[in-house]
Amino acid sequence: MKKLTIIFRRAPHGSPHGREALDLALLSASFEQEVSLIFVDEGVLNLVKTQQPELVGAKDFIATFGALPLYDIDTILACEASLQEYGLANTELTIAPSIVASSAIREQLASADEVLVF
Predict the structure, then answer these.
(1) Which of 3, 21, 46, 47 could link 12 by a cystine bridge, Cβ 3.0 to 4.6 Å?
(2) Does residue 51 register a pLDDT over 80?
């Protein structure tokens, strides 16, 4: 089984990157690949549950993160420093990622067969 790690690095609604990364994660997992997600830098903003993307003409894909368990996507990491930089607490997130230091992110990347950055 191939280990795929997808990194979310960009804010959710300024570009289609977040939606495309999530679509790829779900599609890959449906083909029985082991998918892991990492949220760093502006990418942690994808996790904020109180978003109103329709105000900027974007499609709301954030609720789809709730489907991750159905696809057996269990490894979801969020960079602790990035969350602190944006002042985000666990209660503000739409899902409950493992909040980790950069060393844990490096370990996850080292164990992946393929890494894609969005």
Answers:
(1) 46
(2) no
In this predicted structure, the answer to whether residue 58 has a pLDDT above a threshold of 70 is no
Judged against a pLDDT cut of 90, whether residue 62 lies above it is answered with no
Write b or e for each residue in 16-48: b if 16 or more Cβ atoms lie within 10 A of its Cβ, otherwise e: ebbbebbeebbebbeeebbbbbbbbbbbbbbbe
Helix (H) or strand (E) holding 6: strand 3-8
**Whole-structure pTM value:** 0.92
> Would you say residue 46 has pLDDT above 80?
yes
C-alpha distances in Å from residue 34, one per residue of 4, 22, 63, 103, 111 = 6, 14, 22, 21, 11
Question: CB count, 10 Å around CB of 116?
Answer: 14
CA distance 64 to 46: 11
The residue behind tokens 């969350």 is 83
Adjacent-strand bridge partners of 48: 93
The distance in angstroms from the start CA to the end CA of the chain is: 22
pLDDT at res. 87: 96
